Structures are given as C-alpha cells and as structure tokens.
Amino acid sequence: MAARPLSIFLLKSGRGIDDSIEEPEQLEEAPMSGQFPSQSRFFLRLGKSRKPWWLDYFGVQNDVRSMANGALVFIPTRDRIFALAFGSARHNLVDDSYEHDFGTRVVLNCIDPEKLKSTDLVEPGSARRQRTQLPFDADLSYFGDLDDSTVLKSLTGKVGGHLADVARSVTGAYNLRVTADTPPSELVKFLEDCLDLSESRDYVEKFPTLRWLEPVTDPEVLMPLNEGLIDALFDVEAMIALTIPDIVDYEAEGLISFAGAGGSDCFNDVYIKHYREYLEGAGLSRADFDLEKLKRHKLQLLNDDFTVMHSYSIYRSLVFEASAADDHTFHLSDGVWYRVADDLLDRLRAHLEPHWRASSFPSYTGPNEGRYNELLAAELDGYCLDKTSIAPPGEFGVEPCDVLRLINDRVELIHVKIGTMSDRLSHHFNQGVNSLTLLVEQESARERLAALIAERSGGACPQDLLDALEHRRFAVSFAIVTHKDETGRAGNVPLFSRLSLRRQVRAISRTQTPASFEFVRDTTESATMRRRRGRPIASAREVSCAGCRLELLPHLLTNGLCADCRDA
User: Fold this and answer.
1) Which residue has better confidence, 558 or 25?
2) Entry's NCBIfam families (predicted)?
3) SS (H, E, C) 438-470
4) What is the CB neighbour count within 10 angstroms for residue 164?
5) Are residue 284 and residue 168 in the same domain, yes or no?
6) Partners of residue 80 on adjacent β-strands
7) Of 280, 314, 339, which residue sits at a domain end?
C-alpha cells in the first residue's frame, strides 16, 4: 500500500468531539465505513471555487478555478479521542482542545536517535525559535545547543523500533505528522501504539537533557497558575511575553492582529503591549476577564491583503513563569504548563551565587536609562559609553558597555538594563559577552575603546587605563534596575534569564575575566494597567459582510459581500 501522510492530534482527556470543533457551520458531517469504532465521526470542509487572483492581474481570460477541500476525522480508542486533520479543516480544530506536546512525546519515544533530520528549538528567554536541518541522518549533537536553556518543540527523523514496519518518517510537535502505509483496518491499532508511546517515559534514557521540564496536568495545580497568568496580563510590571508559537514564513505573513473581542488594529510586530491595548480598547478589565476568554482570543497572522493565514490562541502564544507556594517553579510555553526540575534550580543557584554582589550604585530615579548611565558614570568617576561602538568601520555596531571605570587595575565594563523582562535580559547578557570577546580578541577594538575614553576625557586616555587595556585586564558587571528586593539575588530574574546569565558568565570566565551581577533599586512608581476612558473600540473600523455577517476590513468587501459570498 502506498504511504500516506497523516496529521494526528490527541484530544485532551475528557474533551468531546463537538466542543473541539471551531466554526462547525463550515463543516459537513459524512458517514464513515463500518471498520472504524462506532463513535467515529467524519467532517468534510468543502472549499469554495475561486478564480486565482493572478488571472486578472495578467489579463488572462481563461475560466480557471481553484478550491481547497479538507476534513476532520475523530476516532475514539480506549478512553481517548484522536483527531486526524486534512487540508484547511485543521483550522476548525479548537486550539485548546488537544495536547500540545503529544507529537513531541511520541517522536521522542519512537525515533531512532542516530537518524534525526530536523529540530525546532525555542529559547524562551528571548522567544527565539530556530530550525536546524541536515541533509543526512545524524544524532542530536549535530543540531546546535539543546541544553537546559532551550526547549525542544519539534523533531523529525526516521522511525525505529516496532513502528518502523508501518511508518517511514515522523515529525513531532503539537501534532504527529507521519508518513505511513497503514491500511484503514489497522489504523486504530496504529493510533493505540501512538497513545502508548505518548505516555511512555523511555525517551529520558535516549534524550537525558530533556528531563528537566515536566508537563503539569493536575487541575488543582493548574488553576492558581492560570489565575496568576491572567493577573499578569493586567500588570504591566509582570514578566510576561507574547510570541508566535510556531516557525512561520514571513514572506507570506507580514502583519499581526487580534480577534475575539471585536476588531483589531494591525501591527508589524508581536508585543504583549499591543494585546493589552486591544483589551483596553474592548473595555475589558481583570474583573471581567477569565481563562475561557483568554483561550478564545486569537493572535492572527495576516498577509499584505489582510487575509488571515494563521490563527493561534492567545493562551498558546503567551510565555510566562510562575512560582508556587511550595517554591516550585513553573513555565508556560505553547499552551502547556511545565514544572521545572528542582535539581536544575539548585545547580543554577550554586553557580550564580558567587557572582552576585550587593549594589553600591545609586538608585534609579528616572526618567530613562540613558540619563541614569550619565549619572552613574559621574558617580563612579567613570565614562558613559552608551550608544558608542568598538566595531570596525562598516560593520554592525558593538557597544562596549554603558559605563566604564577602572577598579582594582581592571577595566570594568558595566552593562545597565531597566527591568527584568526575559527577552531584554537575554539580549543584555549577550551584549556583555559580545563586547568582551571583541576587546579580548582584537587589538583594534581596544584601540577604538581607548579613543572613546580619550574623547570623553578631553585629552589622552589615562595611562593606567591604557595599561589595563594592553594587558587585557577586564571585568564585566551587569546592573539590573528593578523594584524587587536585591536580596532575592538571582531569583529576581526569570528562569530562562538565569540560564542565559549562567551561560554568559561561563563564557566570560573562560577569558579569565571576573563577572558579576547586581540589582539597582528602582524608586520610580510601579505602573499598573489602567483603562483610558472614552477610547473607541477598534472594531468600529470593520464592516459586516451582508451574506455571512463576518466582520472584515472595508477593502475586503465588494458590494457589501466578502469574496466567499460573492463566489457562492
């Protein structure tokens, strides 16, 4: 039998078929053959016949039509329900209805660890996603830095074990994408094998670096975590980020919008600030917001014609970290809460504690980071080098530091950052390593730094500084401005920022350079989210289609009808 591509989802335990379907009016139920379980259901999504835009664009008169059909198939087995998606019907599956790490767990347990082809990694600290592909079979060591500062989101390779007889290659993410030659009579058995694999812990032996995150399923644990997440949405000081929970093609999608609470403006970038403004414009506050609304709200990716190409639940698009009363740390990524292994936290604490120092720097009083850098330089009798560069002419700028001073015969490079948002801190720590590396490796960079100091001295660079530069005696310190008590030490920054800090401290130490971090007291008023009265809701700019009643941007309607209704 010819191999067929299958896209398989596992519905969450207790989830039914009807409440897993989004926009059911777009689907048409059809009977299935009797060889499947009696409760199986098949839904067909018939595409609309459309004339491709490029015909009119080039003045071609031929009557050519295109259409895209799809289907959703629900198959119960044991006490769980699988959903198989084909074509565009995938978008009719409720984003919150299925297990978002099902595919990854199956693949980790069935893949041959020596025959990997592709990995998708996400670094939660910076929200960076990275896909690495190889043209040959390889083990995980070929695919970059998969360590405790990254999360594996997708894995592709050749199947090993007993599934190798029916499946050729697999990709695991939120769903399982598999090329298999399974006949219909054996499909249920294949799904049961996948269910067993998803529940197995055998992968820990093959991929031991992945054991530090454990999915949380206990409702009593999840409830306070989700309440804290919603609280954070309405607290602008909270360390919460919005991201696209997938690797996307930016050639096809270039704009961002929101849905679920009326119309939305369009944005070029994904920021939590934009979603907060969307909630504000819709008149929503913490008092009338709950988890169900959060899961119904959508992050939409649009093309240049404002057509929605991809849509994700806001809940799945949030990155957040929380601590429970028992001191356990939890991390939300791609709609799944994970508990962080205690031994990882212990190792982090032991590594970072020696690098923390109580701050002697003046408190931050505003109004911005640039002004504080100037005040700090004056206080330390140092030099403000904010927004300068030691990179060679014509290359991307590399800022040496925000403030420089000579202390204990070393040139101390002080990097200042306001706030403890994870993405900002990850960039902050990387910047410290990049500038030090350039200064240690390139004499020309040290010469440019000496010239910057001379310029700010109003004459020549002081001889003691020149001596320290010549002998490459540096120190690197990270000053983090925060409202938090500095005695919290490394615990004041998010988990993945701590992991990033540990990695960069190790890199700095390899150059025989001391590294430290400290917390500067922020005396400015802590901000909270407040709704501005009288602000119009963004949906006023949208118009309803006279046929289907969907709200669309005005330019997408002709004679009051959308494209689907005009072609109907």
Assistant:
1) 25
2) TIGR04141 family sporadically distributed protein (TIGR04141)
3) HHHHCHHHHHHHHHHHHHHHCCCCCHHHHHHHH
4) 12
5) no
6) 77
7) 339
**Rg (Cα) of the chain, in Å, rounded?**
27
At 356 the pLDDT is: 95
Reported as a single tens digit per residue, the pLDDT across 42-65 is 999 988 888 888 888 899 989 888
Q: What gap in Å lies between CA 133 and CA 156, rounded to an integer?
A: 9
pTM over 0.70: no
Closest CA to 444 of 387, 367, 514, 391: 391
- Please tell me the total number of residues recorded for the chain in this structure: 568
In sequence order, what E strands does 51-106 have?
70-77, 80-86
User: In the block, which residue shows the tokens 């679920």?
Assistant: 260
Q: Would residue 526 count as lying in a domain?
A: no
Beta strands at 474-482 and 515-521: parallel, antiparallel or unpaired: parallel
For 374-392, the pLDDT digits (tens) are 999 999 999 999 999 999 8
156, 169 contact by CB (below 8 A): yes
Is 529 part of a structural domain of the chain? Answer: no
User: For 63-103, how does the pLDDT look when each residue is reduced to its tens digit (9 = 90+)?
Assistant: 888 888 899 999 999 999 999 999 889 889 988 899 888 88
The H or E element spanning position 364 is none
CA angle 440–417–392, rounded 5-degree value: 35
The yes-or-no verdict on residue 548 having pLDDT over 60 is no
At residue 232, what are phi and psi to the nearest 5 degrees?
-65, -30
Which amino acid type is present at position 413?
L
Residue 528 counted as domain residue: no
H or E stretch at 262: none
Distance CA(449)–CA(398), nearest Å, equals: 11
Q: Report the C-alpha gap between 429 and 427 in whole angstroms.
A: 6
Whether the ω angle into residue 367 lies within 30 degrees of 0, i.e. cis, is: yes
Instruction: List the structure tokens of 450.
Output: 């000496």
Helices (H), strands (E): how many in the chain? Answer: 15, 25
The domain total for the chain is 4
Boundaries of domain holding 319: 219-339
Q: Where are the alpha helices (DSSP H) in 282-421?
A: 291-296, 314-317, 342-352, 369-380
What number of other Cβ atoms are within 10 A of residue 549's Cβ?
A: 9
Q: How far, in whole angstroms, is CA 318 from its chain's centroid?
A: 7
**Torsions phi, psi of 329, nearest 5?**
-105, 135
What is the pairing mode between strands 474-482 and 410-418? parallel
